[in-house]
Amino acid sequence: MKAEIVSVGTELTSGDSLNTNSKYIASLLFELGIDVSLHISVKDDVELLKSVARDSIGRSDVIIFTGGLGPTEDDFTKEVVADVVSRKLVLDEKVLREIEEYFQKRDIVMSENNVKQAYVVEDSIALRNRVGTAPGYMFKHSGKIVVLLPGPPSEMKSMFELEVMPILKMENSSEIYTRVIKCIGIGESQLEQSIKHVIDESEDVYIATYAKVGEVKIKLISGKQKALERAFKKVVKLAEQNIFALSDISIEEAISDNLKSSKLKIGFCESCTGGLVTSKLTELDGASEILDRSVITYSNKSKMAEADVKYSTIEKHGAVSEEVALEMAEGLFRKSDIDIAVSITGIAGPGGGSEEKPVGLVYIAICTKNHKKAKRNIFAGDRKSIQRRAAKEAYNMIREYLIERDMFKVF
Q1: Which of 203, 220, 245 is the last residue of a domain?
Q2: Global pTM?
Q3: What residues does the MoaB/Mog domain cover (predicted)?
Q4: How far is CA 190 from CA 81, 193, 207, 326, 400, in A?
């Protein structure tokens, strides 16, 4: 089955909002073995949407529209699609009662224009909205499956998972098998080159690499489970040195899981990343089990006060240096009841760089009871990108430390 996703809203085409709905829907359709061939964003224009809807319904097996189901005048997706497939909009008393109850429970006066949302596409399944007021719709037209979903991500997600996915799973009977390998410490092009012969020889398995800041995901997909597993084992063997997970989790999640299983406590002393490394850990459940403390030592004065960095070290080598990074980690370790101390100091830019110490220069250090190490890095990109890459590399260094001590497990 081939699918396309049509996202409606001027806020998407103007760049005011990021289209996260398409990414979310496509990833779930992929798991069902439904091939997404097109993502289209359309501004709030009736004639343009009509043209897109006609083309989409004509060429794909599954067409999913998001947005434009609200009560205002610029919400007209339902009306346009109904017109394209020559169906009427009919008042659904059950849907109307659900909308009225939504407002009553919240002690809000229901506007007259909300009644518009109770008109459903003729001979369609009204999809229940557990979060908002706009119902979704699903129907077949000339053998094609047409789905209309609300635009707000929280409303769309629950509706798609609970209402749409089960039906699509029944409609698409072919079994699809997938495997994921997550890597770090290697670029996408280099990783792809290292597994190229497996990609070329695995005719029954689709193998692709996807880069995200500091990480690379390898995805394997096939309708033949044995062929998939053969290719998977070959890729794992070739990429083993850089693998941190065999599931779709982040490096931060992998480190968190390993620190928990080893019952280790960690602390951070951050300068140029300004707490970013720590925040990536505190976003995860159970961070209190492994995180003892974090200090942001942005100024030289704070580095000396909070991490016992010597004034003479800063004077001789500068705040952005291997020596200062090591003293930051060592100082934090001495002052804390932790097993691992990690420090970061660098130049995130856009200013502050020099020929000797350019923008993007970052030193990361680790200190433990019997181990200390600092690494010099040069990261490209703008300020935000440099900070994000530095944070990822800090977690990669923790991974490398745990591997050296046979304390890292790939989940």
Answers
A1: 245
A2: 0.79
A3: 4-170
A4: 46, 5, 15, 30, 19
Domain boundary among 171, 190, 218: 171
Q: List residues bridging with 386 in a β-sheet.
A: none
Distance separating alpha carbons of residues 27 and 34, to the nearest angstrom: 10
DSSP letter for each residue of 17-81: S--HHHHHHHHHHHHTT-EEEEEEEE-S-HHHHHHHHHHHHHH-SEEEEES--SSSTT--HHHHH
3-state secondary structure of 375: strand
Report strand pairing: 136-141 vs 177-184. Answer: unpaired
Contact by Cβ (8 Å): 122, 146: no
Residue 227: give its domain's CATH number: 3.30.70.2860
Query: Which domain, by its residues, includes 212?
Result: 177-245
pLDDT in tens, 333-344: 999 999 999 999
CA 288 to chain centre: 23
- Number of domains observed in the structure of the chain: 3
Residues 361-373 pLDDT 10s: 999 999 999 999 9
Q: In whole angstroms, what is the distance from residue 53 CA to residue 37 CA?
A: 15
Report the C-alpha gap between 211 and 311 in whole angstroms: 41
CATH assignment at residue 299 = 3.90.950.20
